[in-house]
Protein backbone atom coordinates (compact mmCIF):
# COMPACT_ATOMS: atom_id res chain seq x y z
CA UNK A 1 0.00 0.00 0.00
CA UNK A 2 1.27 3.47 -0.84
CA UNK A 3 2.26 5.90 1.89
CA UNK A 4 -0.58 7.93 3.39
CA UNK A 5 1.63 11.02 3.65
CA UNK A 6 3.42 13.12 1.06
CA UNK A 7 5.72 16.14 1.28
CA UNK A 8 5.34 19.35 -0.68
CA UNK A 9 7.72 22.29 -0.96
CA UNK A 10 5.67 25.48 -1.21
CA UNK A 11 6.78 28.83 -2.57
CA UNK A 12 4.82 31.46 -0.65
CA UNK A 13 4.39 35.18 -1.18
CA UNK A 14 4.33 36.41 2.42
CA UNK A 15 3.02 39.83 1.40
CA UNK A 16 -0.15 38.50 -0.20
CA UNK A 17 -0.20 35.36 1.98
CA UNK A 18 -0.63 33.19 -1.08
CA UNK A 19 0.89 29.93 -2.29
CA UNK A 20 2.41 30.61 -5.70
CA UNK A 21 3.15 26.99 -6.48
CA UNK A 22 4.34 23.74 -4.96
CA UNK A 23 7.18 21.47 -5.99
CA UNK A 24 5.69 18.00 -6.00
CA UNK A 25 6.69 14.47 -6.85
CA UNK A 26 4.88 11.72 -8.64
CA UNK A 27 2.93 10.60 -5.57
CA UNK A 28 1.11 13.91 -5.10
CA UNK A 29 0.43 14.41 -8.81
CA UNK A 30 -0.96 10.87 -9.08
CA UNK A 31 -3.28 11.71 -6.20
CA UNK A 32 -4.52 14.90 -7.88
CA UNK A 33 -5.19 13.20 -11.22
CA UNK A 34 -7.01 10.48 -9.29
CA UNK A 35 -9.66 13.12 -8.50
CA UNK A 36 -10.70 13.06 -12.15
CA UNK A 37 -11.62 9.38 -11.95
CA UNK A 38 -13.87 9.68 -8.93
CA UNK A 39 -17.63 9.43 -9.56
CA UNK A 40 -19.69 12.25 -8.04
CA UNK A 41 -21.42 9.84 -5.63
CA UNK A 42 -18.04 8.72 -4.30
CA UNK A 43 -16.92 12.32 -3.75
CA UNK A 44 -20.14 13.13 -1.91
CA UNK A 45 -19.93 10.01 0.26
CA UNK A 46 -16.34 10.38 1.41
CA UNK A 47 -16.73 14.10 2.14
CA UNK A 48 -19.98 13.35 3.96
CA UNK A 49 -18.10 10.86 6.16
CA UNK A 50 -15.88 13.69 7.31
CA UNK A 51 -18.94 15.67 8.37
CA UNK A 52 -18.82 18.12 5.45
CA UNK A 53 -21.00 18.52 2.40
CA UNK A 54 -20.71 19.47 -1.26
CA UNK A 55 -23.48 21.99 -1.88
CA UNK A 56 -26.85 20.34 -2.35
CA UNK A 57 -25.34 17.11 -3.68
CA UNK A 58 -25.48 15.70 -0.15
CA UNK A 59 -29.24 16.20 -0.15
CA UNK A 60 -29.55 14.55 -3.55
CA UNK A 61 -27.41 11.62 -2.37
CA UNK A 62 -29.46 11.24 0.84
CA UNK A 63 -32.74 11.35 -1.07
CA UNK A 64 -31.71 8.41 -3.25
CA UNK A 65 -30.29 6.54 -0.26
CA UNK A 66 -33.59 6.92 1.61
CA UNK A 67 -35.86 6.28 -1.36
CA UNK A 68 -37.90 3.12 -0.91
CA UNK A 69 -37.06 0.30 -3.32
CA UNK A 70 -40.73 0.25 -4.37
CA UNK A 71 -40.09 3.41 -6.39
CA UNK A 72 -37.03 2.04 -8.22
CA UNK A 73 -37.39 0.50 -11.66
CA UNK A 74 -37.10 -3.33 -11.54
CA UNK A 75 -34.17 -3.18 -13.95
CA UNK A 76 -32.26 -0.70 -11.75
CA UNK A 77 -30.38 -0.90 -8.49
CA UNK A 78 -29.69 2.29 -6.52
CA UNK A 79 -26.48 0.77 -5.17
CA UNK A 80 -24.91 1.27 -8.58
CA UNK A 81 -25.25 5.04 -8.13
CA UNK A 82 -24.59 5.29 -4.41
CA UNK A 83 -21.48 3.13 -4.52
CA UNK A 84 -20.17 3.73 -8.00
CA UNK A 85 -16.48 2.93 -8.37
CA UNK A 86 -13.53 4.77 -9.87
CA UNK A 87 -12.26 3.48 -13.21
CA UNK A 88 -8.69 3.66 -11.89
CA UNK A 89 -7.06 1.57 -9.20
CA UNK A 90 -8.06 2.32 -5.66
CA UNK A 91 -6.47 3.73 -2.58
CA UNK A 92 -3.91 0.91 -2.28
CA UNK A 93 -2.15 2.44 -5.30
CA UNK A 94 -2.46 6.09 -4.26
CA UNK A 95 -1.12 8.17 -1.39
CA UNK A 96 -3.40 10.26 0.81
CA UNK A 97 -6.09 7.63 1.10
CA UNK A 98 -9.45 9.26 0.62
CA UNK A 99 -11.23 7.18 3.23
CA UNK A 100 -10.28 4.59 5.77
CA UNK A 101 -13.67 2.95 6.01
CA UNK A 102 -16.26 3.47 3.32
CA UNK A 103 -14.65 4.85 0.19
CA UNK A 104 -14.82 1.37 -1.19
CA UNK A 105 -15.76 -2.05 0.05
CA UNK A 106 -12.28 -3.20 0.93
CA UNK A 107 -11.42 -6.80 1.65
CA UNK A 108 -8.50 -8.77 3.00
CA UNK A 109 -8.95 -11.59 0.55
CA UNK A 110 -7.32 -11.85 -2.82
CA UNK A 111 -10.52 -12.88 -4.64
CA UNK A 112 -12.95 -10.51 -6.25
CA UNK A 113 -16.44 -11.77 -7.00
CA UNK A 114 -18.74 -10.77 -9.80
CA UNK A 115 -22.38 -11.81 -9.96
CA UNK A 116 -24.29 -13.74 -12.58
CA UNK A 117 -27.93 -14.51 -13.22
CA UNK A 118 -29.02 -17.83 -11.59
CA UNK A 119 -30.60 -18.80 -14.92
CA UNK A 120 -27.11 -19.24 -16.35
CA UNK A 121 -26.39 -21.95 -13.82
CA UNK A 122 -29.72 -23.70 -13.33
CA UNK A 123 -31.55 -23.59 -16.66
CA UNK A 124 -29.14 -25.22 -19.07
CA UNK A 125 -31.78 -27.67 -20.33
CA UNK A 126 -33.95 -24.91 -21.71
CA UNK A 127 -30.88 -23.09 -23.10
CA UNK A 128 -31.36 -19.86 -21.15
CA UNK A 129 -27.95 -18.30 -21.26
CA UNK A 130 -27.10 -15.05 -19.52
CA UNK A 131 -23.93 -13.44 -20.77
CA UNK A 132 -24.15 -10.58 -18.29
CA UNK A 133 -22.18 -10.13 -15.08
CA UNK A 134 -22.28 -7.37 -12.47
CA UNK A 135 -19.89 -6.25 -9.74
CA UNK A 136 -22.95 -5.26 -7.66
CA UNK A 137 -24.86 -8.16 -6.04
CA UNK A 138 -28.54 -8.57 -6.91
CA UNK A 139 -28.42 -6.19 -9.86
CA UNK A 140 -31.35 -7.09 -12.11
CA UNK A 141 -30.28 -9.11 -15.16
CA UNK A 142 -31.33 -7.26 -18.34
CA UNK A 143 -31.94 -10.62 -20.05
CA UNK A 144 -33.79 -12.67 -17.42
CA UNK A 145 -35.16 -9.83 -15.25
CA UNK A 146 -34.11 -11.58 -12.03
CA UNK A 147 -31.47 -10.53 -9.46
CA UNK A 148 -27.93 -11.52 -10.43
CA UNK A 149 -27.09 -13.33 -7.19
CA UNK A 150 -24.67 -16.09 -8.16
CA UNK A 151 -21.19 -15.09 -6.96
CA UNK A 152 -18.39 -16.09 -9.33
CA UNK A 153 -14.66 -15.47 -8.62
CA UNK A 154 -13.12 -13.14 -11.18
CA UNK A 155 -9.91 -14.67 -12.51
CA UNK A 156 -6.75 -12.60 -13.03
CA UNK A 157 -7.97 -9.61 -11.07
CA UNK A 158 -6.51 -7.67 -8.19
CA UNK A 159 -8.52 -7.89 -4.95
CA UNK A 160 -11.04 -5.14 -5.43
CA UNK A 161 -10.64 -3.06 -8.52
CA UNK A 162 -10.50 -3.04 -12.28
CA UNK A 163 -7.66 -1.56 -14.29
CA UNK A 164 -7.95 -0.11 -17.79
CA UNK A 165 -5.90 -1.84 -20.46
CA UNK A 166 -3.68 1.20 -20.98
CA UNK A 167 -3.03 1.77 -17.27
CA UNK A 168 0.45 1.04 -15.94
CA UNK A 169 0.11 -0.96 -12.72
CA UNK A 170 3.82 -1.39 -12.20
CA UNK A 171 3.87 -5.07 -13.11
CA UNK A 172 4.90 -4.50 -16.70
CA UNK A 173 6.25 -1.83 -19.00
CA UNK A 174 9.57 -0.04 -19.20
CA UNK A 175 9.36 1.93 -15.97
CA UNK A 176 7.58 -0.51 -13.66
CA UNK A 177 6.43 2.44 -11.54
CA UNK A 178 2.68 2.16 -11.35
CA UNK A 179 0.48 5.17 -10.76
CA UNK A 180 -0.34 7.66 -13.49
CA UNK A 181 2.65 9.91 -14.22
CA UNK A 182 6.36 9.21 -14.44
CA UNK A 183 8.44 9.61 -11.33
CA UNK A 184 11.67 10.94 -12.84
CA UNK A 185 10.20 14.45 -13.05
CA UNK A 186 9.58 17.17 -10.46
CA UNK A 187 6.20 18.75 -11.05
CA UNK A 188 4.96 22.28 -10.47
CA UNK A 189 1.47 22.39 -8.95
CA UNK A 190 -0.19 25.80 -9.03
CA UNK A 191 -2.58 27.14 -6.42
CA UNK A 192 -5.50 26.15 -8.68
CA UNK A 193 -4.04 22.61 -9.01
CA UNK A 194 -2.80 23.14 -12.55
CA UNK A 195 0.07 20.69 -13.07
CA UNK A 196 3.10 21.06 -15.33
CA UNK A 197 6.65 19.67 -15.42
CA UNK A 198 8.95 21.92 -13.42
CA UNK A 199 11.94 23.63 -15.00
CA UNK A 200 13.95 26.80 -14.52
CA UNK A 201 12.17 28.35 -17.49
CA UNK A 202 8.69 27.53 -16.17
CA UNK A 203 9.58 28.87 -12.72
CA UNK A 204 10.82 32.19 -14.11
CA UNK A 205 7.80 32.49 -16.40
CA UNK A 206 5.51 31.87 -13.44
CA UNK A 207 7.21 34.58 -11.33
CA UNK A 208 6.91 37.03 -14.22
CA UNK A 209 3.25 36.16 -14.60
CA UNK A 210 2.60 37.11 -10.98
CA UNK A 211 4.49 40.38 -11.51
CA UNK A 212 6.17 40.16 -8.13
CA UNK A 213 7.54 43.47 -6.91
CA UNK A 214 9.43 42.16 -3.90
CA UNK A 215 11.32 38.90 -4.31
CA UNK A 216 12.48 39.18 -0.69
CA UNK A 217 8.90 38.41 0.34
CA UNK A 218 9.15 34.92 -1.12
CA UNK A 219 9.56 32.05 1.34
CA UNK A 220 9.85 28.30 0.97
CA UNK A 221 7.88 26.05 3.27
CA UNK A 222 7.85 22.25 3.44
CA UNK A 223 4.56 20.70 4.51
CA UNK A 224 3.44 17.12 5.07
CA UNK A 225 -0.03 16.18 3.89
CA UNK A 226 -1.99 13.27 5.29
CA UNK A 227 -5.47 11.81 4.93
CA UNK A 228 -7.32 14.78 6.42
CA UNK A 229 -5.52 17.22 4.14
CA UNK A 230 -6.22 14.96 1.16
CA UNK A 231 -9.93 15.10 1.89
CA UNK A 232 -9.75 18.87 2.32
CA UNK A 233 -7.96 19.22 -1.03
CA UNK A 234 -10.70 17.25 -2.74
CA UNK A 235 -13.44 19.35 -1.16
CA UNK A 236 -11.64 22.67 -1.82
CA UNK A 237 -11.03 21.72 -5.46
CA UNK A 238 -14.81 21.80 -5.97
CA UNK A 239 -15.27 25.14 -4.23
CA UNK A 240 -12.43 27.53 -5.10
CA UNK A 241 -9.36 28.22 -7.24
CA UNK A 242 -6.89 28.92 -4.43
CA UNK A 243 -6.83 25.35 -3.17
CA UNK A 244 -3.24 25.14 -1.90
CA UNK A 245 -3.44 28.48 -0.15
CA UNK A 246 -6.69 27.56 1.54
CA UNK A 247 -5.72 24.06 2.64
CA UNK A 248 -1.97 23.91 3.26
CA UNK A 249 -1.23 27.57 4.03
CA UNK A 250 -4.23 28.56 6.14
CA UNK A 251 -4.71 25.02 7.37
CA UNK A 252 -8.40 24.67 6.58
CA UNK A 253 -8.66 21.00 7.35
Task: Outline the structure in words.
It is a single chain. With 253 residues, the chain is α+β, with helices and mostly antiparallel strands. It has 2 domains: 6-38 and 86-106 and 169-249, no CATH class; 109-159, no CATH class. The protein is 26% helix and 18% strand. It has 8 helices and 10 strands. The chain has helices spanning 26-34, 40-49, 57-66, 79-82, 118-122, 200-210, 227-237, 243-249, and strands spanning 6-13, 18-24, 112-116, 133-134, 139-140, 147-148, 150-154, 187-190, 195-197, 218-225. Strand 5 (139-140) and strand 6 (147-148) form a beta hairpin. Helix 7 (227-237) packs antiparallel against helix 8.
Describe this protein with a few key phrases:
253 residues, alpha+beta, five-stranded antiparallel sheet, three-stranded antiparallel sheet, 8 helices, 10 strands
Topology record:
Layout: E1 6-13, E2 18-24, H1 26-34, H2 40-49, H3 57-66, H4 79-82, E3 112-116, H5 118-122, E4 133-134, E5 139-140, E6 147-148, E7 150-154, E8 187-190, E9 195-197, H6 200-210, E10 218-225, H7 227-237, H8 243-249
Antiparallel strand pairs: 1-2, 1-10, 2-8, 3-4, 3-7, 5-6, 8-9
Helix pairs in contact: 7-8
Q: What proportion of the residues form beta strands (DSSP E)?
A: 15-25%
What is the distance, rounded to the nearest whole angstrom, between the alpha carbons of the first and last residues? 24 Å
Indicate how many domains the architecture comprises: 2
How helical, in percent, are the residues?
Answer: 25-40%
The largest β sheet comes out as:
5 strands, antiparallel
- What strand order characterises the main sheet? 9-8-2-1-10
Pfam family, one: DUF674
Protein name: DUF674 domain-containing protein
